[in-house]
Every structure is written in structure tokens, then in C-alpha cells.
Design brief:
Length: 382
Amino acid sequence: MIDRKLYISTVALLFISLISVYSLSIFPTIYFGAPKYAFLKRQLIAVVLGIVLMTIVSKFNVNRVFTPFGFLLFVGSFFAIVLMLFLPETYVKAVLGAKRWIKIGSFSVAPTEYFKYGFVFFLSWSLARKAKNHLNENSITKEFFAVIPYFMLLIVAIGIIAIGQKDMGQVVVISGVLMALLWLSGRSKRFFLTILVSFAALFVVLIKIAPHRLHRFKGWWAGIQESIPFLPESMKIHDTAVPLHITNSLNAIKNGGILGQGLGEGQYKLGFLSEVHTDFVLAGLSEEIGYLGLLAIVGLIFYIIFRMFEIASKLNRPMHKYFVYGVAVTIFLSFIINAYGISGLIPIKGIAVPLLSYGGSQIIATCIGIGMVLMLSKKVKK
């Protein structure tokens, strides 16, 4: 028997996404000259397909299907993100210079959304095959040699996603998942300290080599520098204004208050919030349903993550345990990056809220990932 609480919570959040898309997509519908219910219809198709796939995957036999299905997801999605680099523009949809979608008829597919969960599977499978061998007693050099293949794969993925697709948000997510699973597999504190310093240096380089990221970072720093006590004048930025979409996001959240303006009554969604039905969905919803309504949605997201941690803690096989933890961390990091970004706490990354934001690929990919978790939940003894 699958974990019904996780299944029902996921379906509930998907239905909330339909309500949010219906309410928040008014301006994009007018701006793009689309039919009245165009965004809602597309989201409905994604939600129905996601629930169907999640249900089907959850019913598969764990011992026979989990590993081959995981490899299919990993290899297929990795091939797709590489293929995007070579496809002509007629097959690749570019938005603001970022090539993240493959066009299939009237629909677009974002392979990176599927790669996140394929990457989780590959890490889980590979790490489970390597015994710990008292890693904490080994030298840090031996630890690095043991994980070189994972970082080589990560570097390739970063090259494709961060440089080819200009998507730093997804890079942060898959990097965070790698670190979390390495921690679970028994790496030492010295190893993590060295890796964190290396990652920090890498992100600085990635920001500096891309003008749009540097501009975004300066705008974020301009917004928080006055709130940092004793900050030297030499570290302050005066030639860059605070991004207007962050200001509008904070104003929308403030305007919602405790109870909100009412569903469908938000004002900032009418052209003031960029991508209000995707990247700024939490800000748009906050204005309409208030702090209490938003707290309920956030609580539901964290309950889904909590259920996964509960399942993972009761699984016996390391590969299964790592995979469930990895899916939970993927959803958690995606949510945190989005929530912190619209609040101005970190630079905005343009990453969707899993299961809530508009977007067929993230809905379907997340449902497949959760379907695999539900498949494994049948291994938990009741």
C-alpha cells in the first residue's frame, strides 16, 4: 500500500495550483492575446497528466521497475539537455535569451526539470554501491578521489544549465542535492568545508562572467545593504537601483495583510509582478489570500516534504533511502530559493515553486519523482 497521506497532499497542492493559475493569469492572458482560459487549460492538462503518471508509477513493482525506470529518466533527460545545445531555433524555445525548452508541437518541454530527479536517482544508485569504509577516518584526498565522478557529472551539468541555459537556480538545486546525499553517505566535515569554499568561488565566477547575473546580484545587494549594520561605504553600491519587481513583490505581500484582498482581487498581478503565475506565484497569492492562506499552502508543501522524510527513515536499502531524501531536498530547495528570492533575501533565480507554479514540465516531472517515492513507500512496513 502506498503512502496515502503523501498522495492526497500532493493532489491537494496540484488542485490549489489550478486555482492560483486561474486567478493570477489574467494579465499574461491579456498581454499575450491568449484565449481567456488558455493558461488554466494548459495547467489542467499538466495536472491531470501528472496525477495519472504519479498513480501509474506508484503501482510499479519496486524490485523490477524502480532501477530501470530511474536509469531511463536519468539517461533520457541528460540526453535531452545536451541535445538542446545543437537543435535549431525552430525546435528550441528561447525566453529572454535562455534556451530551456524543446518545442513539441504547441507544447514546450523543459528537460532540466526531469534531469533533477534523474540526477537524484543516479546519485542514489551510485552512492549505495560504494560502502562507507569508515570514510571519516580516511584522508580528505581519498574522499575527493571517491567522489570525482559525481563532480565531473555536476560540472558538465553546470556547463549546460548555467551557461547554455542561463539557469543558476537549477544549478543551486542539483548542487545542494549532491551535497545532501554525500552528507548522508558519510563524508567528513573537512570534506564539506573544502567543497563549500570551492562552490562559493565557482558561483562568484559564474556571476561575474554573465552580465545579467552580475546586474541581478548588484540589484539584490542594493536592496539589502542599508539593513546591514556597520557596512563600510566602500562595499555599498550606488549605481544600481533596487529591482522594481522585488519592490512590487514586497508591496504585494504587505498589501495582502493577514486575510488578503480576496481571491481574484489582487492588484499587483495586473502587470506589476513579473511572471506572477510562475516565479512570483507566492507574492501574487499572498496579496489575495493573506498571510494565513499563504501559511496554509506553505504548511502543505512542508508536510509533503515531511512525509518523504518519514518514508526515507523507514526504508532499509540505502539506494531507496537516498532517493527519497533526494526528492525531498529537491522540492525543499526549489521552494526556499523561490520564497527567499521574492522576499529579497537572496537574488531572484527564476525558479518555480514545485507543484504550485504554472508550468507543465515542473508539474509532470515532480509528479514522476513523487510517484517513484510512492512506489518505494510500499516497502515501508505499516
